[in-house]
Amino acid sequence: RIRRVTYIVRKGDSLSRISARFRVSVTELLRWNRISADKYLQPGQQLLLFVDVTEQST
After folding, report:
1. Which ranges of the chain would DSSP assign to H, the alpha helix?
2. What pLDDT, on the 0 to 100 scale, is given for residue 56?
3. For the chain, where are the E strands, in sequence order?
4. Would you call 34 helix, strand, or coil by DSSP?
5. Are strands 2-8 and 46-52 parallel, antiparallel or unpaired?
6. Which of 8, 10, 35, 55 is 20–30 Å from 46 (CA)?
7. 40 DSSP 8-state letter
8. pTM for the complete prediction?
9. Exposed e or buried b for every residue in 15-35, given b needs 16+ CB within 10 A?
10. C-alpha–C-alpha distance, residues 49 and 54, integer Å
11. CA-based diameter of the chain, in Å?
C-alpha cells in the first residue's frame, strides 16, 4: 500500500538522507517535487513523498 506523505525539511537534511529514511530513491524525490538535484533544500520546505506502508511479514 502506498501512502502520500508531506515531509518538512529540517536543518541538515539532504535528498540522500531523506530518501534513505523513507526508502525511496533520490530520483523519485526529484520527480515528485519537480526539483533539480543542484537546488539546495531549505529548512521548512515541504516535500511530497509516496511511501510504501505495506506491512512485511517476518
Report:
1. 15-22, 26-33
2. 58
3. 2-8, 46-52
4. coil
5. antiparallel
6. 55
7. P
8. 0.82
9. beebbeebebeeeebeeebee
10. 15
11. 39
Written as nine digits, the cell of 35 is 526539483
pLDDT, residue 31, reads 96
45 and 18 in contact (C-beta within 8 Å)? no
> Cα–Cα distances in Å, from 41 out to 30, 49, 50, 53, 55?
11, 15, 18, 25, 30
Domains observed in the chain: 2-52 (3.10.350.10)
- The reported pLDDT for the residue numbered 58 is 53
Rounded Cα gap, residues 25 and 30, in angstroms: 9
Q: How many CA atoms lie within 13 A of 12 on its CB side?
A: 0
